[in-house]
Design brief:
The structure is a single chain. The protein is mainly alpha-helical. The protein has one domain: Four Helix Bundle (Hemerythrin (Met), subunit A) (Up-down Bundle), CATH 1.20.120. It is 75% helix and 0% strand. The radius of gyration is 19 Å and the shape is elongated. The termini are far apart.
Length: 153
C-alpha cells in the first residue's frame, strides 16, 4: 500500500517551541551572569566601567533577539495565543515588561561612567526586572505547554 503525502500541517505539540525557549533562556542567562560578575568585580577604574558597558551592550543585543523571538511574527506569543487564547493578556504583560526592561537597560548604559555605586544599583535593579520577567515567562510556558522550565539554566 502506497503512503500518500498529506498537506495538513503537523499539530504543534509544543516541543519545538519549548526547545527554542530553553535555548534563548540559556543564552540570556549566560549574559546576565556575565553582567552580574562585571558589576561585582572590584574597581573604580575605566576598565571596570568598560567591562560593565560591554556587558550591558551584550545584554541589549540579547534582549533584542529575545524580543524578536517572542513578539515577532509567529514568535512565541503568537504561538501561545493560537494554542491557548486565554493567555493573550499574559503575553501583553510580558510585552510591556520588554519596554520597561529596555528603558532600564538604556538608563544603565547612559549612567555607566558615573559613580560605580550608582551604576551597580542601576544594574542590580535591571537584573531584578529581568529575574521577574524570566519567572513570568516560565509561568507562561507552564500555563501554555504544561512544562516546567525550572530555575537552573
Amino acid at each position: 500500500m502506497e503512503t500518500v503525502p498529506t498537506t495538513e500541517p503537523i499539530a504543534d505539540t509544543g516541543e519545538q517551541t519549548v526547545a527554542g525557549v530553553r535555548q534563548r533562556r540559556s543564552g540570556l542567562h549566560a549574559v546576565l551572569v556575565e553582567l552580574e560578575a562585571a558589576i561585582a568585580a572590584p574597581g573604580r577604574s575605566q576598565a571596570w566601567s568598560d567591562r560593565v558597558a560591554a556587558g550591558l551592550e551584550r545584554l541589549r543585543v540579547a534582549l533584542a533577539e529575545h524580543i524578536v523571538g517572542t513578539e515577532g511574527p509567529d514568535g512565541l506569543f503568537d504561538q501561545v495565543i493560537r494554542r491557548t487564547p486565554r493567555l493573550a493578556h499574559h503575553c501583553a504583560q510580558l510585552t510591556s515588561e520588554h519596554v520597561a526592561i529596555g528603558d532600564a537597560t538604556t538608563a544603565a548604559q547612559e549612567a555607566v561612567h558615573n559613580d560605580p555605586g550608582d551604576v551597580r544599583e542601576a544594574v542590580l535593579s535591571l537584573l531584578a526586572l529581568l529575574a521577574r520577567h524570566r519567572q513570568h515567562g516560565a509561568d507562561l510556558i507552564y500555563e501554555a505547554y504544561d512544562v516546567d522550565l525550572g530555575g537552573s539554566d
